[in-house]
Amino acid sequence: MTAAHWHLVLNHIPLLGILFGALLLAYGHWRRQDDVQTASLGLLVVAGLAIIAVYLTGEPAEEVVEGLAGVSHDAIEAHEHFAWYGLVAGIATSIGALGTLLYGAVRQRLVRWTVWLTLLLALVSVGLIGYTANLGGKISHPELRTDTATQAVPGDEHDGED
């Protein structure tokens, strides 16, 4: 597998892991189920750390795809520049979830404000990582780019009659 393959395979883990971890954490907190909250915090730790692997495979993936037909250099640059924010957010979520687990272990119960803070970090991370993923999708999918003009397919014109 090339670096581009690894980057594409790994990039789903932080986004979906943090999204599902946040939803599960909210559910567990709402239902006051410590086991569900603990499991979701563990998922947030792992998913948040997975973004490091995604980030580290980004540059080698760029080397593989740059210069290929249909690949947008501008989209690569936009994705690359915004990826830093996703990385920081993912690591912050992971640290917040780990801190919540450790603080809860010391106090022998999860503390509400730490759960809420971790949930907030997770939601911000989902937004930043999701936007980064959106930018990444535009690299080799011209149909997602707004800067490309759509061309009409011959014979697809409508004359107003149905």
How many domains make up the coordinates? 1
* Helical stretch tally: 5
Class by alpha and beta content? mainly alpha
The beta-strand count equals 0
Coarse shape: elongated
Q: Rg from C-alpha positions?
A: 20 Å
Please state the average pLDDT score: 88
Q: Helical percent range?
A: over 70%
**Largest sheet: number of strands, sense, barrel closure:** none
Element order: H for helix, E for strand: HHHHH
Beta-strand share of residues: under 5%
Distance between termini? 50 Å
Unreliable stretches, pLDDT < 50, 5 or more residues? 149-159
Provide structural commentary:
It is a single chain. The protein has about 160 residues and is mainly alpha-helical. The protein has one domain. Helices cover about 75% and strands about 0% of the residues. It has helices at about 5-10, 10-30, 35-65, 75-105, 110-135. The longest helix is centred in the middle third of the chain and has 35 residues, at about 75-105. The model is unreliable at about 150-160 (pLDDT under 50).
